[in-house]
Amino acid sequence: MKTIADIKAIRGTMQKTVEDSKVIRVVVGMATCGIAAGARPVLEALSAEVKKKGLTDKIVVSQTGCIGLCQFEPIVDVYVPGQHKVTYIKMSAEKALEVVEKHLVGGKPVTEYTMASSGLSTVDGKPAQSLEDTNLYAKQVRVALRNCGVIDPENIDEYIGRGGYEALGKVLTEMKPEDVIETVLASGLRGRGGAGFPTGLKWKLCRPNVSDQKYVCCNADEGDPGAFMDRSVLEGDPHAVLEAMAIAGFAIGSSQGYIYVRAEYPIAIQRLRIAINQAHEYGLLGKNIFGTGFDFDIDLRLGAGAFVCGEETALMTSIEGKRGEPRPRPPFPAVKGLFAKPSILNNVETYANIAQIIVKGADWFAGMGTEKSTGTKVFALGGKINNTGLIEIPMGTPLRTIIEDIGGGIPNGKKFKAVQTGGPSGGCIPAEYLDIPVDYENLKSIGCIVGSGGMIVMDEDNCMVDIAKFFLEFTVDESCGKCTACRIGTRRMLELLTTITDGKADMATLEKLEDLCKYIQVNSLCALGQTAPNPVLSTIKFFKDEYIAHIVDKKCPAGVCKALMQYAICEDKCVGCKMCAKGCPANAIAVNAAGEVKDGKKLPYLVIDPAACVKCGACVATCKFGAIYKK
Amino acid sequence: MACKKCSVPFKGTPEQEKELKAAIAAMKDEPGSLMPIIQKAQEIYGYLPIEVQTMISDETGVPIERIYGIATFYAQFTLEPKGQYQISVCLGTACYVKGSSLVLDKITEILGIQPGQCTPDGKFSLDSCRCVGACGLAPVMMINGEVYGRLTVDQVPGILAKY
Q: Is residue A561 a part of any domain in this protein?
């Protein structure tokens, strides 16, 4: 078992190694996205080449978690002592060998593979050599992600070297549980999983409840389509979550924690297991931590593919080994939660802030962000945007900064239409609100939520009715079936939406849809149902003209809804090669040999029979002359 | 539930049974261990037929209807095994109008299983899917990720014989 002095000694050694080192460090981003992009062969090639050249005493090759720039994976960072860090992007095993030869041995960075090759520049317009140099990084503040992409998540000493477990030591030796709760309360930290409930208040409500056992739970069942910040924290900095849970245990008077992590995250699970074992070895989990008499242990529980288990009572029911159905509240989990004992549940990103709040103080944290939404928030940028990936920004950053400066705008010169936040529980923010500062209150005021932090950007080619339908299909699939409002209500909503996208609806349908939305919001048992209508209501609010176009004009302005769309052949471009007719699975394209005249105009050589067309788009792909268009 | 016939006869080995029983004995006194036990069972057998559910029920004393309730609630659990070769026939609009349902019928006839089921020898499992985005090749089916396009019913026996 390690004492606080031992941990300090490890920290000192680790920091000294980094500062005084003469060793070159080569770090490969090995989160799920990096591995999927081919990071493993890169890591293997680097290790093998360094070994082959007999350079293992001069060059250390290691791994790290998510660096945060999905479109540039696999990413390799090179730290040469006394020199500026270099980030290599889109690496392959071959490129890695070249980097070993020219940069690690020869001392000259291979500029055609560095961050500079991405076209991203520094704040003053020069080519960026590393991620930190880029102007998109300059707007970010990394708190929850501070260790992601920096440390080796499978080495506890690296976490300790970056100040890890200092907060736990401080809490156990210098603070009373009430002080811990007051600090978290004063920091203004609010739940990062979606609802934004003040974390300190949650702990405060649980603390006075007397019981032989209380539980600290961690929600790592990240289920929103488009959100992956929790996975990145678990894969890149698992100890931050363990340390925070132990602190929470001390604060509320609990000795047992559970992390409920979805089974779809195998790498996160593996790294959590390694981290828990290492923490046990060091005595940072288990009995009598730091010799203070405080016991705390953590078990993992794997989800089994049910979105509703992200809801707090459903998650607890699932840990109990039952069908993951939500329970009515009250009683709230702080009173009667897991195994009917007082419990708290926070999500991964929330926990990732705790240790730093303890070490740096509540004022430091409250100094970032806005008055009611303090600190920073991690967002996962996706969809129609140039720079996809994870970003962490102070609360209150204008949406425009996120989309244009950090996200780099919309690809292919298309026009921004909306950004969807909060997944199936959230809504769409249209262009006229681009200057809104992103925080809990502001987004709520326009019918959206911060949610877990997924941001899906949409351009002029996206149909908003179709987007609403997409999220509703998700909710219908994931409704657990316990309460009628959600189980049957969401299904009826989907049917009404489908009549709209099929062009079979009238304006009364829209009214009926809105009424149903309000009914489901009020009458559902849990947040899944209560928020399910949000994507529909917010698109009706901001894009009513698109709904009306579907209903009245029977047109889908974005050309997405198949039933309302027709393919046609442009007379001027068609050369009559008949390739489209050959490729048509429905035999819907025929030669207009008679030269049929309609409205005084001669029809093109080939015509599409709208009745037979199944709108598969095969003809568009076949036509070499771009003669087929949507109308 | 008892009448829900699985297309594949249960072929558990004594080793698998021993492994499951040992795992249950190690875990069953922990609070909330039923989910990890069911996950372990699926890991050992690959799926959760009624025989395995019965075993879990006998060993833990938990009524089988609760175990069935859990096994059918979570998307990760399956009551049917997946075959060595997973056949997926596209029933999207373009494939449908080109007769992919006839292709599906032919496969059903040859293999003697319905969509969602697996052949008794564990070789093929059959599913239908929505558009795979290869409409120009309609009708389309996939076997373990390999795409077969412009299918006719007559080609089906030959393709299946390759596996």
A: no
Q: Are residues A256 and A334 in the same domain?
A: yes
> Do A254 and A196 fall into the same domain?
yes
A616 vs B74: CB contact, 8 Å cut-off?
no
- The alpha carbon dihedral of A263, A264, A266, A268 has a sign of negative
Nearest to A302 among B39, B92, B135 (CB): B39
Shared domain check, A76 and A179: no
**Which CATH number goes with the domain that contains A90?**
3.40.30.10
ipTM of the complex: 0.84
Distance, in Å, from the CA atom of A190 to the CA atom of A200, rounded to the nearest integer, reads 8
User: What residues are paired with A216 via a beta bridge?
Assistant: A257, A344
A301 and A345 housed in the same domain: yes
Q: What is the pLDDT of residues A152-161, one digit of tens each?
A: 999 999 999 9
Host domain of residue A119 = 18-137
CB distance B35–A301 less than 8 Å? yes
Tell me if A12 is assigned to some domain: no
Separation of first and last alpha carbons in chain A = 72
Is A585 in contact with B98 (Cβ distance < 8 A)? Answer: yes
Own/partner pairs for A137-141, CB < 8 Å, 24+ apart?
A: A139/A393, A139/A397, A139/A401, A139/A405, A139/A406, A140/A391, A140/A392, A140/A393, A140/A406, A141/A368, A141/A376, A141/A392, A141/A393, A141/A394
Q: How many CA atoms lie within 13 A of B93 on its CB side?
A: 11
Q: A317: domain CATH number?
A: 3.40.50.11540
User: How many structural domains compose chain A?
Assistant: 5
Let me know if residue A1 belongs to a domain. Answer: no
Give the pLDDT confidence of A319-362 residue by residue, as tens digits: 999 999 999 999 999 999 999 999 999 999 999 999 999 999 99
Q: What is the DSSP letter of A406?
A: I
Closest CA to A309 of A108, A500, A579, A528: A528
